[in-house]
Write a structure and sequence with these properties.
heterodimer; A: mainly alpha; 17 helices; 72% helix; B: OB fold (Dihydrolipoamide Acetyltransferase, E2P); 5-stranded mixed β-barrel; 7 helices; 20% strand; elongated
Chain lengths: 343, 245
């Protein structure tokens, strides 16, 4: 990929005229590479279909396409909101809206997550845009973690799935909100701005004479292209795990609560289920006690392979390498606290 | 990656989603209710790419007149970073247009031993069954009733189940997958078939099986898989939506 010349501009930016180039020199650009790849794929189609005609690979490829197809509408919703924030919401308005003390703004942002009805893919671009608009990282991260788990759609689907044990909804809400707030506070106390890739925090340049709609479209497009790639990467991992994780994992657990909690937390990470669907999966694991299943529901929307991929794309690898394990631990602890209170 | 390439990829991806949504193939991967959202998503992707292409063409036309928007030099380093991940967008495009993976089937059912008998439906009670001679039931409903309905409402009733053939060892099942959002959360529901010679039926063959439940066969010991004494079995073409919900 090193030979490919990249000439694209950053988010929201209007393209400058290209510097004049020596006209005679022909270069291989990504456009030619793409064409070559497409032609190659067409030529090799029969071979590809043949190779994938093994039950395991068929299942994995179906799950892969399913995860991508299912998540794309939410990602598009997220990038449209992100574009709208960039274009229409001035940074000063956000500052007025949130309490000036970060410690107070963190829980406010967590509760504000109720207003973003989507699964986790939508919240990553939005959180990143909030940071660029001058919202404190801790506050934006708290929103990022809370939004996929505490919005009405997820709570209703959890209620429908767990009709017999309605306390599950309260426990899930509490556990997820607690995770978001604790992570926000932890970031306030220990987080270093340097962990977040510089590109994620850079303020958008002021543009004069550019229509707001142009900014909106360009920001949304840029976020979609960038986050979309990472979403696909996450979907690939999740599909691989879905056929590689031995099913006995779930069966042998039974009443071993400690092991059950750990395994369910790991399963939530590798399966990368949509937060609107995970309750139905959890309810069908009727061999397990409620507590491990609650852990599954709290960990899933906060940290999974798809989210880790999206986060490392939006905020950089060194951020994701610290944030994901910390969130994992905090989410398990929060779920246990919520379970102790409610179940 | 060049901006032009990104736009081409976006058009391809949006086109792939539209193709799935408009041809009905999306039912292999997600729930039927997602269709309008897939159409909107596909259109938004294509429109965002089209807007960018048109603006680039216009900017290109004006380009020689002078540097009207010359403030993007710092953008390059940032973009290099994001460039490689964007290539991943090609994977779902190729998967949809070239490979078009099938709906999940027997392989998924055999990956797990659990039978998704829905405890949660017990609380809301069971509606009385119609008086018809043969009652068509979803496998989910059949399993749930045999496992949790103590009144024995299915005993001595002839039932018709629709599903595909699954083999595990010497046992032959009729099975379906239930999804609540997308194929990634599919959970199997299955019924053990007895009473006929099922050897001519290949795995994944869709069938309609009529027969009667063996009362009390769905217990904790059998992992809530009921036994079904089959009196007739007909191979059928797969339904458009292969999943139960």
């Amino acid at each position: 990929m090193a030979g490919i010349i990249s000439e694209v501009t950053i988010t929201g930016e209007i393209r400058a005229p290209r510097p004049p180039r020596p006209p005679a020199r022909w270069r291989v650009t990504s456009l030619e590479v793409l064409c070559a790849l497409l032609v190659l794929a067409l030529l090799l189609q029969d071979w590809l279909v043949g190779v994938l005609d093994v039950p395991v690979l068929r299942t994995a490829s179906t799950v892969f396409v399913a995860i991508c197809v299912q998540a794309m509408p939410f990602l598009v919703l997220g990038v449209l909101i992100s574009g709208a924030i960039a274009a229409f919401v001035p940074a000063s308005a956000l500052r007025r809206l949130l309490p000036s003390r970060t410690a107070l703004a963190v829980p406010v942002a967590g509760v504000a997550g109720v207003a973003l009805p989507g699964c986790e893919c939508a919240s990553v671009p939005v959180a990143r845009r909030l940071m660029q608009q001058g919202v404190a990282p801790a506050v934006a991260l708290s929103f990022l973690l809370a939004a996929p788990a505490v919005n009405p759609i997820v709570l209703v689907s959890t209620f429908v799935a767990f009709r017999d044990t309605p306390w599950m909804v309260a426990a899930r809400f509490t556990g997820s909100l607690l995770t978001a707030v604790v992570m926000g506070w932890l970031w306030t106390r220990f987080g270093k701005a340097g962990w977040i890739a510089e590109r994620a925090l850079r303020a958008l340049p002021e543009r004069e004479g550019t229509s707001r709609w142009a900014v909106f479209a360009e920001t949304a497009r840029h976020d979609l292209v960038e986050a979309g790639g990472f979403l696909v990467l996450g979907g690939l991992f999740a599909a691989a795990f879905s056929v590689l994780v031995p099913p006995e994992w779930m069966q042998t657990l039974g009443s071993q609560v400690v092991l059950g909690v750990l395994v369910m937390a790991l399963l939530a990470v590798v399966l990368a289920l949509c937060s609107e669907a995970d309750a139905f999966v959890a309810v069908s694991m009727s061999a397990l006690p409620l507590l491990p299943r609650l852990v599954f529901l709290v960990v899933g929307p906060a940290v999974d392979v798809k989210l880790i991929a999206l986060q490392s794309g939006a905020f950089g690898k060194s951020f994701a390498a610290r944030f994901a394990p910390a969130t994992f631990a905090v989410a398990i602890a929060s779920a246990l606290v919520a379970g102790w209170v409610f179940l | 990656m060049r901006r032009e390439t990104q736009n081409v990829l976006l058009v391809l991806l949006g086109g792939a989603l539209l193709k799935l949504a408009l041809t009905g193939t999306y039912l292999r991967y997600v729930k039927a209710s997602l269709q309008p959202w897939l159409v909107v998503t596909g259109v938004v992707m294509v429109v965002l790419a089209a807007v960018a292409i048109v603006r680039d063409l216009r900017a290109g036309g004006r380009g020689h007149e002078g540097d009207q928007h010359g403030h993007d030099q710092h953008g390059h380093d940032q973009h290099e970073h994001a460039a490689r991940s964007t290539w991943m967008l090609l994977l779902p495009v190729l998967a949809v247009f070239l490979i078009s993976p099938p709906a999940l089937g027997s392989d998924t059912v055999n990956r797990s031993d659990r039978n998704a008998a829905q405890e949660s439906k017990v609380a809301s009670g069971f509606a009385p069954l119609p008086d018809d001679e043969v009652i068509p039931l979803t496998i989910t409903e059949f399993v749930t009733r045999t496992a949790w309905d103590d009144s024995g409402s299915l005993d001595d009733r002839t039932v018709k189940l629709t599903g595909f053939v699954v083999r595990k060892g010497d046992d032959v099942y009729v099975a379906r997958l239930a999804i609540s959002c997308c194929a990634a959360d599919a959970s199997p529901v299955k019924v053990l078939m007895t009473g006929l010679d099922f050897s001519p039926l290949p795995d994944d063959q869709w069938i309609e099986a009529t027969g009667r439940v063996v009362p009390g066969s769905a217990t904790k010991e059998t992992a809530y898989v009921p036994t079904f004494t089959v009196s007739g079995v007909t191979p059928i073409t797969p339904p458009e939506d292969t999943y139960e919900s």
